[in-house]
Amino acid sequence: MPEKKKKIFISDWELKRMAPPGQKPVIPENAIISPLSSDWLEYGRVEGIGYRVEGGRETELREQIADVGRRLHALGFVPAADGNISVRLCGGILLITPSGASKGRLAPADISKIAITGELISGRKPSSEYLLHLCVYRARPDAAAVVHAHPPVATGLASAGIALDKPLTSELVIALGIVPLAGYATPGTEEVAESIAGFVKDHNAIMLANHGVVTYGADLETAFQRMETVEQAAKITLVAEHLGGGRSIPPEKVKKLEEIRRRLGKLTSL
What we know:
CATH superfamily of the largest domain: Class II aldolase/adducin N-terminal domain
Number of strands: 10
Radius of gyration: 19 Å
CATH architecture of the largest domain: 3-Layer(aba) Sandwich
Order of helices and strands: EHEHHEEEEHEHHEHEEHH
Oligomer: single chain
Low-confidence stretches: 43-49
């Protein structure tokens, strides 16, 4: 009898690396794929393209944006009309929250649609921070969603010139690694995109001096959860600083956490 092939585990990150441009990957018969991989395959997300929208998928994505807006608002991350959210569709099209709208009261029909070049396709005037989103998508072909918010503790640290660059918790090391601090730039201008340009490729979250935080990922839920992780890490950092300064995880232990991150398909490292 032929010997059975040993089962292999493939993360969503590995799956994307296996995919030829514009195509889905050929999956080995002995492969076990992660839940994120299943989602990626189900929704037809191909690296460098974005969400496919057949069968009413755009309506679902609009509902997801509105839902994430409500969750951010409930957490106090986007008071008044603060913050903005977007997802990338196939063909260089984005869905993005409109300018001047409360993220806590968005309806799916309120979401604007723009081209990757910035032109409005339909809906209201897009968020004034659309250039920030375009910068991320151009630099990160693997990103299909971007969240920009003003979580108070993380924004406070950013205003004090403090980045989240110390391995204080295993969760931060595994989920994000370093969260760098970009220099101050006037909101709604090209300066904001320029300020993060050097960080986008190697990080999944960036603090904006005197402004807020931007996170992104392969889907909207990932981008949202990374925003939560940044704020949680900021709270822990603040408490540790008040108690005399946080004690970093020893370097040899950090390496083990980094290995876990690599196995999970994370891209950044400390």
